[in-house]
Amino acid sequence: MLIVGAAVVTPHQVFDPGYVAIRHSRIAGVGPSSLRTTMPPPGSATSIVELDGGWVVPGFVDVHVHGGGGAQVNGGSREEVVESVGTIAKFHARHGTTSLLATTVSDTPERLRTTVQGVNDFLRIGVPDGARVLGTHLEGPYLARVKTGAQNPDALRPPDPEELRSLLGLGGGTIRIVTIAPELPLADELIATVRAFDARVSIGHTDASYEQAAAAIEAGARHATHLFNAMSPIHHRRPGAVTAALLDDRVTLEVIADLEHVHPAAIGLVARLAADRMVAVSDAVPAAGLSPGDYSLGGLDVHLSGSTVTLLSDPARLAGSSLSLDQAFANLVNVVGLAVPEAVLATSTTAASITGMHDIGVIRAGALADLAVLDDQFNCLATLVGGVIVHT
After folding, report:
1. 3-state DSSP call for residue 344?
2. Phi first, then psi: what are they for 346, rounded to 5°?
3. Contact in structure between 79 and 122 (CB atoms under 8 Å)
4. How far is CA 282 from CA 223, 246, 258, 343, in A?
5. Can you tell me the distance from the alpha carbon of 221 to that of 229, in angstroms, rounded to the nearest whole number?
6. Quick one: pLDDT at residue 211?
7. What gap in Å lies between CA 44 and CA 21, rounded to an integer?
8. What Å distances lie between residue 5 and 86, 126, 137, 388, CA to CA?
9. Residues annotated as catalytic (active site), given as ranges
């Protein structure tokens, strides 16, 4: 396949217009359109896709997605999880996401074990018209009760290193991120356990002091779950976990870029201070893509009004989002004021780097042909996963 006629964003420059040549599942070449005739054809049956403007960017990588299209990751049986994750992968692929981490909410020990096993089952099966699922992000259940957000408080519990070790073992290397509150007892042991399984520790749903958060980072935490939200904030005498994460160059920083969870100016501040560490996430819940109404998330009732999801019992409290990453991309460029290559870093490249995958999230020869084709307003026109068109 040869895609031509749109601006192509690569790690080092934007070709406008450019071309992307695809052979089998990988990118065979990329450059300005004027040079495309010098490229050898990807195969004997080359198809040429002629675009009239717009953008070709790396497929989005979402490391924090609970659901979409009516489905959520947590489930009561492995079969239910497989079906739900398939629905989620298809829904987000329609919005340019080519890779994601199936993200849990706090739940009973039995349901968390079942969910981890169900995600593993899905990894062996996949879906032909959905995003690539890279593994699991465990958000909880070892979170601070004073920062529950939309986590079910009945499912929160004190840290249990043995339970965590069991979950990581069931994951067999597919649990990529574990979110914990670092001020809880045994947090150091949790961090060491996660690192022993080569997963990434994230601080989140935390009321930690600056000192506690900094100590967790020194112990090995390398990620911040939805920075600012459900997190001890910046105060000039109590800098909090937000400041600890912002100041340490080793920490990648999730931002829910729906413009509701975080003010555009605050997103701009993160981009100014840490452009190469900011990771745009959806934090999407099952209500994403559905009509306004009442839905469920992890045993809690939530309400979708417009694009906003809130707890039914507390309408002032946000409960995840209905965001997709094509809208996040548009928000970052059109409202926050990022340049398109900066938005690509946040929605694709940096997120890819923390999943352990080194051939996604970037347009370069040899990388997997995971691409999002966007119009001039950054709406997703087409999505390719491994060179296969999964949405158009």
Report:
1. helix
2. -70, -35
3. no
4. 16, 20, 8, 14
5. 18
6. 98
7. 13
8. 32, 32, 37, 19
9. 283
Contacts of 13 (CB under 8 A, 6+ apart): none
Chain-centroid distance of CA 251 in Å reads: 15
Neighbours of 261 (CB within 10 A): 23
Structure tokens at 347: 């929605």
pLDDT confidence bin for 46, thresholds 50/70/90: confident
Question: Residues 60-79: what's their mean pLDDT?
Answer: 98
pTM of the complete model beyond 0.90? yes
pLDDT of residue 208: 98
- The CA distance from 3 to 18, in Å, is 8
Give the tens place of pLDDT for each residue, 201-254.
Answer: 999 999 999 999 999 999 999 999 999 999 999 999 999 999 999 999 999 999
Cα–Cα distance measured from residue 156 to residue 68, given in angstroms and rounded to the nearest whole number: 23
188-195 contacts at long range (C-beta below 8 A, 24 or more positions apart): 188/216, 188/219, 189/159, 189/161, 190/142, 190/159, 190/161, 190/164, 191/216, 191/219, 191/220, 191/221, 192/219, 192/220, 193/161, 193/164, 193/165, 193/168, 194/164, 194/168, 194/220, 195/220
Is the Cβ–Cβ distance between 285 and 72 less than 8 Å?
A: yes
Please state whether beta strands 14-23 and 26-32 pair in parallel, antiparallel, or not at all (unpaired). antiparallel
Q: Which two tokens stand for residue 251?
A: 């920490």
Report the amino acid identity of residue 160.
Answer: D
